[in-house]
Amino acid sequence: MNIFVVVLMSAAASIGGVSQVPVNTCPAGGKSIHVHVHGIRSASGTVKAVLYGPDPKSFLVKGEKADKEREPAQEGNMTLCVAAPDVGKYAVVVYHDENDNHKFDRNWIGLPTEGFGVSHNPS
Q1: Looking at residue 102, which CATH number applies to its domain?
Q2: Could you tell me the pTM of the whole model?
């Protein structure tokens, strides 16, 4: 099951009424990105957001993330705040680690068994 991800820089997210439930709070004065996650199927486990910089070669490469945030899951919608090193272009990957084993679980043919989403959900 896919989860829908909406990503906003913190300055933009503070304009207008964002109705999602915030989980962690962005530090005052720091650069950060609010990651709004929709469609979380249960409150089991954790939801993890991983931030990658603008270089496509670093996307999903171990050790190349700009930052990450992990919070206890909330069924439905939630918002995570991920620190950004600077203003710029970023990609965000989110997954719902329902069994909290710190792994992205897949079935025997390699398809994901846990919810996930990618900023702009590219195909």
Answers
A1: 2.60.40
A2: 0.75
DSSP string, the chain: -B-EEEEEEHHHHTSS---SPB-S-PPTTS-EEEEEEEEE--SSSEEEEEEE-S-GGGTT-TT-EEEEEEEE--SEEEEEEEE-SSSS--EEEEEEETT-SSS--B-TTS-B-S-EEETT---
Give the list of residues 6+ apart from residue 100 with CB closer than 8 angstroms, or none.
44, 45, 46
pLDDT digits (tens, 9 = 90+) for 41-91: 999 999 999 999 888 898 889 888 888 999 999 999 999 988 888 888 889
123: in domain: no
Q: Please give the tally of structural domains in the chain.
A: 1
pLDDT > 70 fraction of the chain, expressed in percent and rounded: 75
